[in-house]
Amino acid sequence: MSHPGPRAPMASGGRRWLAPNLSPKPGLARHAVRPADAAGAGIHWLRTLQAKGSQRLAPVHLRHRPVSPRTPPLHLIALDTSGSMRRGGRLAWAKGYAARLIEQAARAGDHVALLSFGGQGVQLLLPPGPARAAGRERVRPVGGGGGTPLSACLNEADRLLRKTQRQRGAAGGDCLWLLTDGRTLEQPMAPGSAGHIVVVDFDDPLRPLGRCAAWAERWQAEHRLPA
């Protein structure tokens, strides 16, 4: 799913994925918690040397450590549906971005959740769980209007992240994706439970307020301009 919108260069410094409309293949190497796969990284050397004895080391002597299963990271998407996002097709553009994130999470075998925040308050559109490509259909009917309850949304995002982490007993490299134009006077704190935060800036490129970049700097988060 993609939607037209004003064009702006993508910010550098992406970690896990390329921007959703640049490539269908997510860059999987940086956020996921994966078993060690470098040569020799999983070898249990004490048991290997015991098996080798006085013989020359051979592949048959190698003993490996048990590999822990990968903990899928949760990508929690917070979609701004306030009235200002309806201007210039920004909401449609952001919805396309959110849908692509869900699709990429499904391809990566990750988990995903989707929150919207606007005139209807904070709504959980997709609860945390394994990502499915069909989940992007939950984005399609989302409408916009009203204010921007950003602080309430980030509080709910923090609650969901903490709950998920308690249930699985690990953080799993969780990531919060905040899709917004920054058109609010609220100055919230960043959710402490997010391992990484990406602020995707849908502000007016011709007359930007710069709030998304300011939040990202204060939160030590990544700031992106959707391409």
Q: In words, what does this structure look like?
A:
The protein has a 6-stranded mixed β-sheet, sandwiched between helices. Helix content is 24%, strand content 18%. It has 227 residues and is of the alpha/beta class. The model is unreliable at 1-41 (pLDDT under 50). The chain has helices spanning 45-52, 90-108, 150-168, 211-219, and strands spanning 74-80, 111-118, 121-130, 175-180, 196-201, 222-224. It folds into 2 domains: 35-68, no CATH class; 74-224, von Willebrand factor, type A domain (Rossmann fold, 3-Layer(aba) Sandwich), CATH 3.40.50. β5, α4 and β6 (222-224) form a beta-alpha-beta unit. The relative contact order is 0.19. It is built from 4 helices and 6 strands, in the order αβαββαββαβ.
Short note summarizing the structure:
The chain has 227 residues and is α/β, with parallel strands linked by helices. The chain has helices at residues 45-52, 90-108, 150-168, 211-219, and strands spanning 74-80, 111-118, 121-130, 175-180, 196-201, 222-224. The protein has two domains: 35-68, no CATH class; 74-224, Rossmann fold.
Task: Draw up the topology in text.
Blueprint: H1 45-52, E1 74-80, H2 90-108, E2 111-118, E3 121-130, H3 150-168, E4 175-180, E5 196-201, H4 211-219, E6 222-224
Parallel strand pairs: 1-2, 1-4, 4-5, 5-6
Antiparallel strand pairs: 2-3
